[in-house]
Amino acid sequence: MKEIWQEKHIVFFDGDCGVCNFWVQWILERDTKDQFMFASLQSDFGQNFLSERGLKTNVFNTMYLWKPNQYYLIKSQAVLQIANLLGGIYKLSGIGKMIPKAISDQVYDIISRNRMKLANQKCYLPTPHQKKKFIEV
Known about the structure:
alpha/beta
């Protein structure tokens, strides 16, 4: 029997980062098709995801988007795919795919290095429906 998360796109994020938590909240508010679930990289689920792929389990400055049994994307490619999946006006982010990955990831890395300065950790209380979208935090 499949777990519900196996049918969704999983967003892995730094659970201690205000910018990352803002981004998760932003996705939650726009996920009208109920496509996404979330797990912090620090959670057991997140740690398993990283270790199964030979990725560093102590570095949390990268966002991952994983579609089980299909693909996983990192950094700017994950962000662009999330926007594309949300659809509507966010599909215009597809223009960003024309920018070479090396450049878009460089911009992502600059934001990532400064993310703790950009936003304070905020206490976000998800609705009961939104709580179901979190695998582990």
